[in-house]
Amino acid sequence: MAKFLYRIGKSAYHHKWRFIAVWLIILFALGGLATTFSKSTNTSFSIPGLDSVVTQEKMQERFPDAGDMASAPTGSIVVQAPAGKSLQDPDQEAAVAKLVQDLQSKPYLANTEAIVAPQLAAMGMQQQLTEAKTAQGVPEEQIAADIRALSPLSEDGRTGTINVAFDAASAMDIDAADRTDLKSTLDAAASDNLQVSYAGQAFSGQGEMGMASELIGIAVAALVLMITFGSFVAAGMPLISAVVGVAIGLLGVMLGTAFTDSINDMTPTLASMIGLAVGIDYALFIVSRFRNELIAQIGNDLTPAELAAEIKKTTVAQRAEAMGLAVGKAGSAVVFAGITVIIALTALSIINIPFLTAMALAAAATVVIAVLVALSFLPAVLGLLGTKVFAARVPGVQAPDPEDEKPTMGLLWVRRIRNRPILHLVLGVVFLGLLAIPAGQLRLAMPTDGSEPLGSPARVAYETTAEAFGPGRNAPMIALVDLVDVAPEQRQQAMGAALSEISATEGVENAQVVKTTDSLDTAQIMITPKYGATDERTSETLTALRDHVPAFEEATGATYGITGVTPIFDDISARLQNVLLPYIAIVLALAFLVLMLVFRSIWVPLIAAAGFALSVAATFGITVGFFQEGWLGLIDDPQPLLSFLPIMLIGLVFGLAMDYQVFLVTRMREGWAHGKTAGNATSNGFKHGARVVTAAALIMISVFAAFMMQDAAFIKTMGFALAVAVAFDAFVVRMMIIPATMFLLDERAWWLPKWIDRILPKVDIEGEALAK
């Protein structure tokens, strides 16, 4: 592979315009296709095969008008009068009437004749339910409770809800202009006399993806690169390469919406986050190696100014040769590092969760593009610059080369570790172990309106509804009672038994039959729990309801399943939590096998995998502490972590950790393979790799941390967790625990049983074939 990459690098340098033209054609072609064919990203989360999803599918068969609750184009508008007033007061009543009139005039809303003021809707519902339930012999006390559970008007008359539905097949099919127009109408209706908020899938459309996070990450990366290379021009090369790769990746993701509904609205941001970070890092590694190869031709002990002057004297053939060697040697490590990230991401597809698979594959595709751009587009751009690649010196920055006689900071640090390896090993392990303790309190939940940013319309609507109607109003469930196998004359009795069983379950506030088929072979029971959607007690209530099913089926011959947005989300969280440990085991095993293949060692993969596990555990612990438990009050809205965050984090951190392992340990093995003692090879390899890994880690930390500015809870938390994970893995694991362990193992670090060595394929990641 090293020879093949050598030819690519050299050819791209010589034939720069051909390579640049190809990438520009790809960029503009994808831009045109994405603009023409892309659709809105999906806003729903669903997993085939879950109990709640199977029940929903059965309900759609028996009740064709039921629809998909997780993606229905519906929303709820919450109106509230000021404290001490009622929606039936003249001023408030007039304001609500004006809002209703405006809603009824919207051509994009369905069933506008059903949109009425909450006061009128409550009166009609009360009359209808009272008459129907009285005729059924339902006690007055129960009738009153059933009305309270469904009424669109709170008991004090201060708060009301108005349900709306867009004339669209699903929430993702709503025209963005129509959604914006409705939001504007609702925002304009808010006044001192009336608070108006709104929530639901209909209002959760794709917003404009702000670029502030990317720009901040790029700015910090530029600063790190200028310090690394001592040149403004060289610092810009990884940035240009990464931006081109991210642009192509994002356009590809948007084009993918034309072919699948599984692309979630968080997918582009995640792909951008990962693509930008790895794109800069991979380009940094190649530019750094290109600089080293040029210095090897010119001579050591050169300042950036002297280097720039000497480069002007080189020929195109010399620079092309250096570029070929850089891509052949560093490119091999980049390819392997990229493969580890890609494998870790694509492995998420084994969990069989469509939206998670789409997110992982989109991020993986962006990494593939980042690797290809770094290997072919970047050398072409460097060829375009010619002798000016390290020009425009940064004042005050020396950026000495590792081959200089003066010890670098990396060499000074690794000497400290070599003098006291046990101390540094124990300190690193204890530090990460203590931070990992809070991970035992990890709670997972899917995003709801209650996890939206404080003060947002959806969050205000959620909190207002919980306060006025009880928290359970935000977490409704539906029990679908299947009476097909029950004799027709016994169906009413079995339905009543189901209602009694459900109503008596701990945590259920109200349960009532809301719909039946004409033959009474199926019934829907609306369940209002006592607690909110993300409350652990709601999950316990759902479990208790399902636990009653076997006994109920044995007693009556009927059965029931529970569905609704809350049960679906709860089932997703449970599925993700159940596969978390198996996925970690798969990733650790994968890390061991791949690293054993590359480094021809048993101990190096073991300590690499163990270090990865430590950094992930510490990341979980500190993320739970700040974002879930609210440590130090730094997060003003502590919430359970999003269900798919831990498993995505594991996949991403695995890939990044293996990047650093490759960049750092490759030079160690190269020195040992060429005759150095194990200890000297570790020191020498660390000296060469420390600057690149430090720069790469600082860039990734800045890129990920910048995404904490995003409003989306998942992106904010993921940005923090990734930034912390990179810091732990790069600076504690790779730069302290790994060298300390390597010094302690000494020659045994490179031990590999002969029979394994014979069956393992040879991987030339150090570019030895080029040296020969």
Automatic annotation (TrEMBL):
This is Membrane protein YdfJ. It is a multi-pass membrane protein. The lineage of its organism: Bacteria, Bacillati, Actinomycetota, Actinomycetes, Mycobacteriales. One of its GO terms (cellular component) is plasma membrane. The chain crosses the membrane at residues 215-235, 242-260, 266-287, 333-355, 361-385, 422-440, 580-599, 606-627, 647-668, 689-708, 720-745. Residues 254-384 form the SSD domain. It comes from Corynebacterium kalinowskii. Keywords: Cell membrane, Membrane, Transmembrane, Transmembrane helix. Coiled coil: none annotated. It is found in: Cell membrane. InterPro entries: MMPL_dom, Mycobact_MmpL, SSD. Gene3D superfamilies: Multidrug efflux transporter AcrB transmembrane domain (1.20.1640.10).
